[in-house]
Amino acid sequence: MKAFRRYAREERAARLEVVDIPKPKTGEVLLKVSYCGICGSDLHAWLNHKGYESVLPEVTFGHEFSATVVETGSGVSNWKTDDQAVMIALQTHHDENDPYCRMRLPQLSSRRRVQGLHLDGGMAEYVCVEEEFLLPIPQGLDLELAALTEPLSVAEHCIGNRTPIGPDDKVIISGPGIIGLLCAISARSRGAEVIISGTERDEATRLTAARTIGFETLVVGPGHPPLHEQITAYFPDGADALVEASGSAHALADAWQSVHANGTVTAVALYSRTIDFDLTQFLRKQIDLRTSYASSKEDYLRAFKLLQDGAVDASVLTQNYSLADAEQGFIDSENLEATKVLLDCS
Ligand SMILES: [Zn+2]
């Protein structure tokens, strides 16, 4: 079978290879992959960025996929041929002795791993997954849209669990990458009024996509007023919440000033450098500074619901490439020429 694999712990060291179709071991399911998304973390791993040292030197990338069961290993009880599934990307084997499992936050356990970075993932024609980490795709949800379940679950965790957002709340999302856009959709589904900000570089593809799906957008950078001034022009009483999804220290340092006293700032991006900020200013406004990391099973289930409700327009947010063109998909993602690349692996 064809698989897009990293072959060395170096920058851009991944290629399409022909490898054996894996055999499902005890408790594992062999799946035929339909669509697999390229995630920001795949890009970081491909570029061999700092913070991604744990990624195997040789591994098939891909943790955001939809697939169909073709074979089950011994001991598998909940899956049969032709069932459709998505994978839980961040995997922690359930253990009631683990406090994070008891809190239903297994993604925070030190035992966690990411399939597609720490073991072979779904940028391939076939993949084996332990049945514990598979979720059935609801009837009627198409496989292309289902491939967005994982990133949407990350947005659902950020908006549904970590950021208090309700009807008519004023929300600013900084960063129009796929997580920012999906956070905006999650917030809108709760009745919030949402603005999305980005840079000039985002204008051609990602901010245009944001406007196409009905959001107001703001551009930050040289020649534009500071972001907090632009936000308060929209929300004169200040924003109830800022969701920082760009990973830019500048965006965070600027945008939080538009949040009113007792509001919330949630960081959902990864930051490549340390951020200096004046905590006293946050304190004097009693701003709740939070972070949101990954997602758990309940967030995937809510993501399914949003996808079924038609909240996500894949024709605007995704760009399809064949598995053979995976490398081009990575390059176009890096250059912000795509919002969300989906590899067609079928
Ligand atoms: Zn992801």
In short:
With 346 residues, the chain is an alpha/beta fold. 29% of the residues lie in helices and 26% in strands.
Topology:
Layout: E1 2-6, E2 14-18, E3 28-37, H1 40-46, E4 59-60, E5 64-72, E6 84-87, E7 90-91, H2 99-102, E8 113-114, E9 126-130, E10 134-136, H3 143-146, H4 149-162, E11 170-174, H5 178-189, E12 193-199, H6 200-212, E13 216-220, H7 227-234, E14 239-244, H8 249-255, E15 259-267, H9 279-284, E16 288-291, H10 297-308, H11 314-317, E17 319-322, H12 326-334, E18 341-344
The structure holds zinc ion.
* CATH architecture designation of the largest domain: Alpha-Beta Complex
E-strand count: 18
Q: Give the names of the bound compounds.
A: zinc ion
Largest sheet: 7 strands, mixed
Structural class by secondary-structure content: alpha/beta
**What are the low-pLDDT stretches, counting only 5+ consecutive residues below 50?**
none
* Rg measurement, Å: 20 Å
Helix content: 25-40%
CATH first level of the largest domain: Alpha Beta
The gross shape turns out to be: globular
Q: Into which percentage range does the β-strand content fall? A: 25-35%
Provide the descriptors you would attach to this structure in a database record.
346 residues; alpha/beta; Quinone Oxidoreductase, Chain A, domain 1; Rossmann fold; 2 domains; 7-stranded mixed sheet; 6-stranded parallel sheet; 12 helices; 18 strands; 29% helix; binds zinc ion
Write up what this structure looks like.
Helix content is 29%, strand content 26%. By secondary structure, it is α/β, with parallel strands linked by helices. The protein has two domains: 2-148 and 318-344, Quinone Oxidoreductase, Chain A, domain 1; 153-291, 3-Layer(aba) Sandwich (Rossmann fold). The strands form four sheets. Strands 3, 5, 6, 9, 10, 17 and 18 form a seven-stranded mixed sheet that branches. Helix 4 crosses helix 5 (178-189) and helix 4 packs across helix 10. The chain starts with a strand and ends with a strand. 48% of the residues are buried. Residues 39, 41, 63-64, 89, 150-151 line the site of zinc ion.
